[in-house]
Amino acid sequence: MTYSESEKAQGFGTLAVHAGQVPDPSTGAIMTPIYQTSTYVQSAPGDHRGYEYGRVSNPTRTALEANIAALEAARHGIAFASGVAATDGILKGLEPGDRVLAVTDLYGGTYRLFVQVFARYGLHFEFVDMRDMERLGRALRDDVKLLWVETPTNPLLQIVDIAAVASAADAVGAHLVVDNTFASPYLQRPLELGAHLVLHSSTKYLGGHSDVVGGIVCTNHDGWAEKLRFQIKSSGAVPGPMDCFLLLRGTKTLHLRMDAHSRNASQVAEYLHAHPRVERVMYPGLPTDPGYAVARRQMRLFGGMVSFQLKDDRVEAAVQVL
Ligand SMILES: *Cc1c(COP(=O)(O)O)cnc(C)c1O
User: Fold this and answer.
1) What would the pLDDT profile of 15-33 be if each residue is shown by its tens digit?
2) CB of 60 sitting under 6 A from ligand 1
3) pLDDT in tens, 157-178
4) How far does residue 262's CA lie from ligand 1's centre (Å)?
5) Which atom, in ligand 1's list, is nearest to the CA of 202?
6) What is the CATH number of the domain that holds 307?
7) Residues 288, 190 within the same domain
8) 204, 222, 251 - which closes a domain
9) Domain span at residue 71?
10) Residue 250 pLDDT more than 60?
11) Distance from the CA of 215 to the CA of which of 30, 186, 204, 254 falls in 20 to 30 A?
12) Residue 149, domain CATH
C-alpha cells in the first residue's frame, strides 16, 4: 500500500517486478502465495497479525496494491473486483447534490454507471470537453466536487492536459480523477501531474493476458484512501486472491509490453494515415493529431490504441473492415 524512498530510487522495471513483494516469511517462497483463506486464527480475541477477514484485506491483495501503488508513485493503492467497481467506490465517497464534471468521450460503462445508477441517488453529472480550458472554467461551479478525466479517451483517443485540469480543480477545491487505463503507469503518471486519484481497469494493460477482471485506485490523499477502504469493507467489491496473483504476474512485464504495444500502434497508425480509403486516424503519436503536443509532454510513449474513420461512412463499410 505504501512505497518507500528506496523503492522511489528504483527504475520502473525493477519496481514492476519487485515492489510490494517480499519472500513468504514462513517458507521463503519468492512468489507471493495465493492466500486462499477467508479468515485467520487469533491468538486471543482481537489479537491478530493484521488480517482478520478476507473482505477487509488479504495478503495477496496487499502485495498487489503495494505493487501498483509503487508504479503510480502513490502512497495508497486500493484494489477492487473490476474497473467499474473502482469507479463505484469513488462515487460513493460523494454526497447527494455533489456535481461531477466528466470528459465528453468516456468509457461506456463509466457513462452508464454515472447516468443510469448514481444520477438516481442525487449526484449530478455534466459532460465537458476538457481539451478546452475556457469551457471547463465556465463549468467549474461551487458544487463541483470531482473532475473525471480519461486521457487518452476510450474510444476516440482524445488527449486532455492533466496538469492544466488539475490546477483548475485545485482552484475551486475539487478533486481530479484520471482513468489511466489506456496509458498505464509506464506511459503516464497522473498523480505526478497533480491528479488526486488515478483509476485503472486492471483487466486491460495491467493484467495483460485477458484472463482476469480487476480495478484499482491509487492516491496520495489519505482522506480518499480511508474512504475507499471503508467502501471495500462496507460494499465488498473485492478481488479474489487468485485474481490478485494473476495481476501481480501481469505487472511484471508491463513495461516490456507497453514498449511493444506503442511501437506496433505507431506503425499501424502511420499505415492507416497514408491509406487512401481512410478519412481520419486518431492516434496521439501522429504529429498531425490535435493531442500530439500535450501527449508528448505528459506521456512516455503514445500507447497501443488506435481508432480511425473510413472515407466511406456507411456502417456496412466499417463492419466489412472489422
Ligand atoms: C474497461 C474499462 C473500464 C472498466 O473496467 P472493467 O474492469 O471492465 O470493469 C474503465 N475505464 C476504461 C477506460 C476501460 O477501458
Assistant:
1) 999 999 999 988 999 999 9
2) no
3) 999 999 999 999 999 999 999 9
4) 20
5) 7
6) 3.90.1150.10
7) no
8) 251
9) 5-251
10) yes
11) 30
12) 3.40.640.10
Pairing of strands 124-128, 99-103: parallel
Domain count, the chain: 2
Ligand 1: nearest atom to the Cα of 153: 13
Q: Which atom of ligand 1 is nearest to the CA of 203?
A: 7
What was the pLDDT predicted at 142? 86
Higher per-residue pLDDT: 26 or 149: 149
Same domain as 291, residue 276:
yes
**Reported pTM:** 0.95
3-class DSSP assignment, residue 21? coil
Q: Return the pLDDT at 189.
A: 98
* Same-domain status, 24 and 77: yes
Ligand 1: distance of its center to the CA of 179 in Å?
9
**Do 187 and 12 form a contact (C-beta atoms < 8 A)?**
no
N- to C-terminal Cα distance for the chain? 42
Same domain, 242 and 298: no
Mean pLDDT for the chain? 96
CA of 213: how far to CAs of 186, 216, 239, 284, 313, in Å?
Answer: 20, 11, 8, 27, 34
CA angle 174, 151, 207 (to 5 degrees): 110
CB of residue 158 inside a 6 A radius of ligand 1:
no
